[in-house]
Amino acid sequence: MSEHGGNVLEMALKNGLDPAEMIDFSANINPLGMPASLKAAIIEHLTSAECYPDVEYRRLHAALARVHHCPAENIMAGNGATELIYAIVNRLRPRTALLLTPGFAEYRRALQRIDCQIEDFPLDEAGGFQPDERLLQVLAERQPDCLFLATPNNPTGLMPDPSLLQAIVACCRQHNIALIVDEAFIDFLPDTPGLIPQMAEYSRLYILRSLTKFFAIPGLRLGYLVSSDRVGLEQMKQLREPWTINAYAALAGEVILDDLDYIQQTHQWLAEQRAWLFDALTALPHLRIWPGAANYIFLRCLRPGYDLQQALLQHRILIRHCANYPGLSTDYYRVAIKSEAANRKLIAALQQVLVED
């Protein structure tokens, strides 16, 4: 079984369903689809497939640098943020690491590959699934070699308190702890700049970004890493295999960040649909909902022993089961925020399985 969302074919085959008939709420992808500007650019540059990409991806890095107002030497693009998670772990070779749970599975898998000793910092329902000052105490006492922190968190969609986030950065700097901040979904938060503007304050601060979710290009795979550790970035570039980014993914990075209309439409869609879906879910019985900031909503089914994912599959709807996240039981789920029509179908199906059953 896949550890990630978007496994529609796998779930359809397992349950004897037609994947073409299913609505996928398990993958947090922008329902507006690939920007029209990128579609046009790909058509215009179809012959790019006939040539090797620039192994240094100079135009891609220049485009990213322009957006973030920093030198291109502070950026490393990759085949999705996942490639870069493994690259930074291989570069740092931490002996000990602290992970907040629940959290994205690839942090743990990358660390396990190098036999890193992992300590979990559990986030629980009693604490609102949010870190608090206890995290600062653990960092100061244990002084792990690195900390992974997702802002917003996956799967909860929650952002840490801004003052606490700054205290975490300061604590890591004080104790020379490498801080890897995963901002894969932060583009969905238009008023949140993230930590890239602060990268010069600490050379062991590494910020991960993804273009896959916001711009609906999961099949192209494109992410990037930003840091003031230029030596480390250059070494990671030299150590990885050549041409990990295909020509169309590189082209995407050169085009989509300038598509301001698409970015504005996405923020408008999300503001409207997140509020609507949150209210609709909150009105249903047997559910507890958390007010996330990203393009997905984290919830718990309060009906004992009820498999909500399986029940919704009978309505051709796939949601993300969160039981394989460390620290979560079979009661927890994550649903993407999709188009108005799809969201209404989800609520109608939930009304049937939770109210009418």
Automatic annotation (TrEMBL):
- Leading EC class: lyase
Q: Which pathway features in its UniProt record? A: Cofactor biosynthesis; adenosylcobalamin biosynthesis
What are the entry keywords?
Answer: Cobalamin biosynthesis, Lyase, Pyridoxal phosphate
What chemistry does it catalyse, as a reaction equation? O-phospho-L-threonine + H(+) = (R)-1-aminopropan-2-yl phosphate + CO2
Membrane-spanning parts: none
Query: What EC number(s) would the UniProt record show?
Result: 4.1.1.81
List the SUPFAM superfamilies hit by this protein, alphabetically: PLP-dependent transferases
Cofactor requirement: pyridoxal 5'-phosphate
List the GO molecular function terms. threonine-phosphate decarboxylase activity
Q: Does the keyword Lyase apply?
A: yes
Q: Report the residue ranges that make up the Aminotransferase class I/classII large domain in this protein.
A: 21-350
Q: Which InterPro entries match?
A: Aminotransferase_I/II_large, CobD, NHTrfase_class1_PyrdxlP-BS, PyrdxlP-dep_Trfase, PyrdxlP-dep_Trfase_major, PyrdxlP-dep_Trfase_small
Q: What does this protein do?
A: Decarboxylates L-threonine-O-3-phosphate to yield (R)-1-amino-2-propanol O-2-phosphate, the precursor for the linkage between the nucleotide loop and the corrin ring in cobalamin.
Name of this chain's protein: threonine-phosphate decarboxylase
What gene is behind this protein?
cobD
